[in-house]
Design brief:
Strand content: 15-25%
Number of strands: 6
Order of helices and strands: HHEEEEHEEH
Structural class: alpha+beta
Number of helices: 4
Radius of gyration: 22 Å
Largest sheet: 2 strands, antiparallel
Shape: elongated
Distance between the termini: 29 Å
Length: about 130
């Protein structure tokens, strides 16, 4: 049999839990959404600025306390995302192949790191 005994008050625990309830996660994610759009626009290869200017983000609320940021690009040609073929490459009409260029991952890594760092700061600040 396992039993737990608690002595003292739970004021620190209550303070931490109340501060977590006060966080406005979507507002914080908007900041990172905007930074991601700016970063992607800056790093997108350019023949024209159409693909670079077509980045946007959406914040999805998946459940209680679970959020996802989706960075998207609206530059679609014949059903194909131009941002994706720039990233991964594509075949040409005459049988050739244009190599992709990994521009998304290196550009976004600092954004991902900043999100993780801010989340960790909140955990240790309220812990």
């Amino acid at each position: 049999m396992i039993s737990f005994v608690q002595r003292g008050d739970l004021s620190k625990t209550e303070k931490m839990l109340n501060s977590l309830l006060a966080l406005n996660i979507p507002d914080r994610l908007k900041k990172f959404g905007d930074k991601g759009v700016a970063t992607l626009a800056m790093h997108t290869p350019r023949d024209s600025s159409q693909t670079a200017d077509s980045w946007y983000y959406e914040i999805e609320i998946k459940g209680k306390g679970e959020y996802v940021i989706h960075w998207c690009n609206s530059n679609i040609n014949n059903g194909v995302s131009i941002a994706v073929i720039l990233q991964y490459g594509h075949g040409t009409r005459n049988g050739g192949y244009v190599m992709g260029r990994d521009y998304i991952n290196p550009a976004m890594q600092p954004i991902f790191d900043a999100i993780a760092e801010e989340a960790w700061r909140e955990v240790i600040k309220n812990g």
